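Ticket #4471: structure output looks truncated?

Reporter: J.K.
Steps to reproduce: submitted the chain below (408 residues) through the standard prediction queue, then opened the result file.
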Amino acid sequence: LNVECPKCHALHFACERLSNSSAQNPRFGMCCLQGQVSLPPFPAWPPELEQAYTDRTFVSKIRQYNSALAFTSVGVNIEDRSVQGSGPNAFRIHGSLHHLMGSLLPPEGVQPSYAQLYIYDSEEATNIRTTRPGNEGLDRQILRDLHDMLHRKHPYAAVYKQAYQVMQEKPPEEQTDLSLRIHFLPGTDGRRYNLPTAHEIAGALPGDGSEEVSHERDIIIYYLGGRLRRISQLNHAYACLHYVLLFPNGEDGWDLYIDMVIPEGGRARTKKVTQLLYYAFHLHPRPARIDHNNIFRGGRLFQQYVVDAWASIEQSRLNWIRNNQKKLRADCYQGLTDNILSDGIGNLAETGRAIILPSSHSGSPRYMQQLLQDSLAICRACKKPDLFLTMTANGSWPEITENLLPGK
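Returned output as attached by the reporter:
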């Protein structure tokens, strides 16, 4: 990784340059689409977190610490078999991955957790965290220091405390159905991480939940009620509410309104930065003079963040396909005739509406069928392959060790 992108300064291998560029003047597209994606670097971490990351024991338990301090929980089926053995650690999931949030107060007889702990002082919150199952091996002093740090630095800690105070002032008979809406104020530049304050993020709007709400832009907080509520992956706070040890300053993540940079004399591929372009930009390391590269130090938590990003992109793509079946001409693929010819349901009255995945969606049946047909066509034209080669990688190769971040 010794070649910089001339536009965004992302570090690349020389072989990653665009085919129509030269070795003397390389150009790259996978990081910023040759300058069409321009996002600021994430701000520096607070000193307390920097110090914690120098402790190898802390880094080895980073996911447990983050889960103990996060505002939201993660709902997902994790495959435990993939994290066993002598090989490198992996984070593998089944099904959809989503973030969940409860009410400000837990049901009667249930211990508070996640965002509910941020209405308590650090000593009481730490006492509760250390008694929860799975947190027995966590250092009490580190938990307390990080709780204090997030109270000072993370804007949503102040938001939750403010919401609790507003709701608590209401008469008891109104508290049962009371809710507030955290609203991202329009007009904020989505490309700037200017560390918003609680007043810039939240409008505390008491209500009973019947008001018009944008689920992509708003987060609804209920005072009481044990039901967990899902946060949209399109919400700008989706990442910073859970990955508090990667984004301790509450940095805004991707949202629908980040503009592309239109090149002079040309036009951008799209008007807005997509999820894929956003994560591709931030998952490229850059020189220390440009970016702190802090998220790459997150170990297993960084792995989880990358899987979460992929799952979020995949979910958005599937949602688009589900809502745009007419544009995909899915009616050409489905119907009673298809059901009869494909070993379908015997009783046609039970036939429901199918969602057709086009061949352009990676991993779909039509995508795999298209790959098969392409492979057969190659074999017809070039004969059957004579050799089948597999290659393995050695983690001690100089090409790998020379490009690891310090301490890795």
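Triage note (M.O.): checked the attachment and the full token line is present. Residues 300-323 form the longest helix (24 residues).
Status: closed, working as intended.
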